[in-house]
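Notebook, p. 212. Picked up where the previous page left off. The plan for this session was modest: take the two constructs that came back from the sequencing core last week, fold each one, and keep the raw output in the notebook itself so nobody has to go hunting through shared drives later. Recording the first one now, exactly as returned: residue sequence, then the structure token string.
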Amino acid sequence: MDKIKLAVAAREDKTPRQLRREAKIPATLYGPGQPSENVQIDAKEFSRLPKGAYSHVIELETGKGKINAIIRDVQRRGTTHEVLNVELYRVALDRKLTVTVPLKFIGVSTAVTIEGGQLIEVFQDVEIECLPGDIPDFIEADVSLITEIDQGLHFGELKISDKIKILNPEDEVVARVVAKKAAAGEAGASSEGAATPEPAAAAS
């Protein structure tokens, strides 16, 4: 992936609400060995970032130079998904860090094609530890390893580079194949047990 760049500027002496009205996002830049800084980002430029920007090192372009960082957190308005605030974390390219990257499901399970089961993807991402330059776009999860109904694929079975360490428990199930009746029952129980979301707090 090409280097992702994002321009940031020192935050103006305005409230977060005033900044957002001017299409600017209030943000905080922090990290080890350096004081936290209040900065701002152009909302349109931030919206154009590729999906990979949320799990890769990005190069912040400031008036004082360039800084390597990751997007640690993005706060959004619950009703409109408008970005309210962004946390940027400074990283050193020679120090390992913890990030979350998506899972990419590959292969075909014979438990589905031959035995008629249904594949349930339990996780959509995985937590890893590695150097910033070794962060992958995704981790592959090969469901062809699932050959029987009620069998699961575990984090410990994922094939990864020796430069990457998976932090999820090895025996935790990434995906599994179940009988279709059981899958329908799981879906019903999930919808009945889902909590009604609370209204999002009003932004300042």
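Okay, moving on. Second construct, recorded in the same format:
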Amino acid sequence: MAKKGMSQHLKSLTAPTFWPILRKEYVWVIKPNPGPHPLNRCIPLLILIRDVLKIAENAREAKRVIFDGNVYVDGIVRRDYKFPVGLMDIVKISKADKSIRIVPYPVKYLWYVNIPEEEARLKLVRIENKTLVKDGNIQLNLHDGRNIVIKRFQSEPINYKTYDTLLIEIPSQTIIKHIPLEVNKLAIVIDGRNVGRIGKIININERTGMKRKHALITLEDLSGHRFQTILDYVMVIGEEKPLIKLYEG
């Protein structure tokens, strides 16, 4: 009989390197279900509760916390312990009275930052694509799998472009602010060797014949050091300072 789909299992040694698991003690590890984030850019809820936040001591306790409806991801109750949590997701654990945001982090790639209650409804999302839908409306396809439809005849038309960032309210998906990707904007690196670094965009080098996502971007951090990465690895987070909390302190 032919193989149907991808493997349903994941070995500890081949799991993403930023998962804080005991790779040589156990052969198998939880494999996240298909969802808003790819395998190499997400953390399953069970590992987040047990190994990252250490709210539970073992898988049974972590599953009980999740099954009881104590975990909210972007304002929605998630009872799937394999649900993938990724970039900029807001996770609230009602039982522990704790809210966190998943952010890019140097070396660890993805980690969390504690956020105040008033920020638990705010999320930054990046526009990955635009689609023309019924009645001439524009559908914005965002990095976390969600879609927002922009009416064709709105009172204040805004030119949304791919790789721009939106500050939205969750779970209603109401757009609060639009931050275009351009020079002098503040951005964070979400992938590559400079992941987690924050800097102001100094230059965007787009060449004819090159895909836009491979354009070279030069950024300058708070110390005045300049570094480069590609456009696909950058997410705008504000103008002079981040619109939301992205690091402790």
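Notes on construct two before I forget. The longest strand covers residues 122-132.
Flagging for discussion at group meeting.
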